[in-house]
Amino acid sequence: MTGFGRAEDVFEGKKITIDIKSLNSKSFDLNIKIPLRYKEKEFEIRKILNDRLIRGKVDCYINIENLEETNDVKINKGLIDSYINELRNIASDGPDFEYLKMAVRLPDAITSRPDELSEGEWEALAKIVNTAIDRFEEFRKTEGKILHEELERNIQNIDKYLNEVIPFEEERIVAVRERYQKTLKEFENVDETRFYQEMAYFTEKLDISEEKVRLTQHLKYYKEVMDNEDFNGKKLGFISQEIGREINTLGSKANHAQIQKLVVMMKDDLEKIKEQTLNVL
């Protein structure tokens, strides 16, 4: 959801510049700074941004610069004269320039008279907003391609580590059985039937077949959603949580040093996936 876009144009002697930038967020959170001249159109601008950006902590800065001299200032001479006369009545011994300095600071002595926002200027402003969003989305798409490659690589890594677990599955069961048999030789009158029952029970507890199947399915589903669905960030986040559950269960059942190492590597790639998924719209 991170991105940046800038657009600017000139309309009737006014240079309008718009900057849009965004960080990750679970929802759409907009902070907008807009000149007083365009305040009446703030709702419309917010709606344009909301409809097109969807999610993210967005900052939008709109700046206006007059390129031509304007005469938007009005000096209310009659009012200033009235202020001066009233001030002179209060204190008649002051110099005239002091009365003038005080009078021009009083309410409505000097006012600005900006012209009303025309429909043409609003259309120009809306066009600049959309151009800035277009460039923002181009930034997102470029970043998205890189992000897609990284996520795909992490998913492939987890799948590779999962396949590397297979050679150690039988090995760990054999090692456990041999260790138990060696220990039992130290005892007399061992019930072999009970021993093999316990071994069968223990082997069943260590079985990771279901975890491997579910983890493989989750990895496949993650890739399908990533490749085929739009606005899939939240969904990918949920799938990554399910991937994490299966990896954790795999680790708790591992009972083998090499499998534990592979689980740690899976977790490392999963953390990268979770962090990167936050940046998916």
TrEMBL record:
PANTHER family: UPF0701 PROTEIN YICC. Its cofactor is a divalent metal cation. One of its GO terms (molecular function) is hydrolase activity. Residues 170-280 form the Endoribonuclease YicC-like C-terminal domain. This is Uncharacterized protein (TIGR00255 family). Residues 1-148 form the Endoribonuclease YicC-like N-terminal domain. InterPro entries: YicC-like_C (IPR013551), YicC-like_N (IPR013527), YicC/YloC-like (IPR005229). It holds the Pfam family YicC-like_C. Signal peptide: none annotated. Belongs to the YicC/YloC family. It comes from Chryseobacterium geocarposphaerae. Keywords: Endonuclease, Hydrolase, Nuclease.
